[in-house]
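Sanity check

After download, print the first record. It should look like this:
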Amino acid sequence: MRKYRNTIFYVVLVGTLLGVMYWVIHLGAQLEAPELLRGEKTSQGAWKDFTSTLFHSLQHPLAILLAQIVTIIIAARIMGWICIKIKQPVVIGEMLAGIILGPSLLGLYFPEFSHTLFPVESLSNLQFLSQIGLILFMFIIGMELDLNVLRNKAHDAVVISHASIVIPFTLGISLAYFLYLFHPPTNVEFLSYSLFIGISMSITAFPVLARIIQERGLQKSKLGAMAITCAAADDITAWCILAVVIAIVKAGDFASALYTIGLAVAYVLIMIKIVRPFLMRVGEVKGSKEALSKPVVAIFFIVLLLSAYATEVIGIHALFGAFMAGAIMPEGSRFRTAFIEKIEDVSTLLLLPLFFVYTGLRTQIGLLNDPQLWMITVGIILVAVIGKFAGSTLAARFVGQSWKDSLSIGALMNTRGLMELIVLNIGYDLGVLSAELFSMMVVMALVTTFMTGPSLDLINFLYRPKKSLLQQDIQDKSKFKILLSFAKSNTGISLLYLADALTLKSKKNAEITALHIEPSNELHHYEVETQELDSFREIKQVAQQLEQPIQTVFKISSDIDSEIVQTSNERDQDLLLLGVSESIYEGSLLGRFLDFTTRIVNPEKLFHTVTNAESPFTTFDRNQQINAKVNAMVGILIDKGFVKAKRVIVPVVLKNDEFLCEMIQRLIQHSDAQIIVWDLNQVLRNTAGFKEKLRQLEQLVPNHLTITERELNREAWQEQDLMLISLPSWNKIVNKKVHWLPFTPSTLLMADRKP
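Expected structure tokens:
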């Protein structure tokens, strides 16, 4: 009764108030001046007014800006995804997205659409937003620098870093002489011109380099540590030089710039001697993620903005202030990670792509319409590569690095990426770089960044290690090797219990490897070591309790699926175990992991099986398959609290389930498992070879194997520890929606190895 009373009250209240509003509006309309009184509109006039209003709304600056942002983010993500697939840094895709949306492509072939989406009057809004994104990004870069590493390994790193700056800087100034001679810029002194060409040759993209090192698993190596240290030293040195160059360009000559440089030195001293101790104290008290409240975050943001404002007023650009503010932040990795998480997504996913497109809108490849201009572009690329690559390589070799490591350091230091675009845009804004030269430099930045990955692959190929001894190969092949790939610790522990059940009585003849892969876009280089320890801590404790030796492999990748495939094949695994920790019986999780397995397990065979099973879950595109294949058998554990494998049921649905005999034998031999082979479709009656294998196995290990055609009752299901079933058979029973499916225990789905 109360329910109806509330409803009646609501209807009466709303109805009365609507009536009052209509009455007041009607009375108010009679007060209008005669010239405002209008007659009834025709339907055609109303439609015309609507379209006019809609068109006006579309042309509103806010609507245009929102449309630009949506378009830019979509284009950046698509191009970034493509670059991931071809083993290139995401920044390459974002840079290309900017050029595609600019006059070089979109503006050339679709000028009307380009002008509608990016009208000239809207570019100032785009520029200011992109500058905010750059300020946040440079703040993050400053925080990512590990100054302790610089202190510990400063000697060799400084030699290599400074050589990788001085040599290309000198070559850049020499190149500037010829560029100034044949293509002199308008109203720009040679000093300013040459200094900017020199610094643009000397920049290294620290974040791109760090990401490449992570994804190639070099962070623990001597090479990775040296390259990170060199890049960090390079970043600090290059930005200090850039600040001086900007001061000289704005002042007009070196003597006038001394005042600006003096103010910049005073600013740096204040930041280091006064602001940094204050921030360190705040970080000690409020350094944890839980204590990082909004007032504390506001303090750090105020420091960032004031620092950027101070350097902009001084005359050395706001980005230097943002970089400096990040560098003096409290050094604790947990604090920096917690703080970076608060701003990174907005900066890198939302605002930073605006900068790439803004750069692309200024890059006019069409201006390079003369063969001579392209020859100059090639010359710029050669000078950039020779200066940075050769300079870093020779310096690394001089301080005692091997030729392989020296060449690798040279290839990594030659990466320019986003940092180069920032320098080029500053030069373009100051009028130092012409539109043609700006476009040439952008092409150089793309080429030098793109060539990093292939260069490292070529160096690794030329200096590949010799094959291991034949005796060691034979010893390794005699072992049963299992690879456990997990994302969460609880899933990894369940997989370890399963691997232990398969190798319990012959641990010396088994090799178990736990693999954990972190997405490259979610981990910073300074927290890799901590994350690795956290990832394997619990699984190592369980392995110690089980007295089961395990190896651990920690990787960082932008393409986790391919990385699992590659790791399994390179290590010549016999069995790859994957985990699904969520319950398979709640929702349609099957579609997600089935899509994953069809991409990594024998695509020709398995893909045909699942797509012809008419499963409602297999709705993925049949034309999209990954070429990489896992050579081992693959098992997917649907974990429902698996600990042991003493009682196992094996439903047999298809003739091809015969390969499960190998797993049945292992479970019996190593875990003394009681196995029930349930012949659902009387497959064993009609498959002599399959039945004969089971009989031989029954004679080998009597009293452990039961073959039945009878369905288990609910109580019998509850006694089982594990259900072992082939993936095609699982797909069949899921489609049939059998009533006993919810009763099943933890389930191991198996796919046969490649024939």
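If your output differs, re-run the checksum step. Summary of this record's structure: Residues 468-475, 582-628 have pLDDT under 50 and may be disordered.
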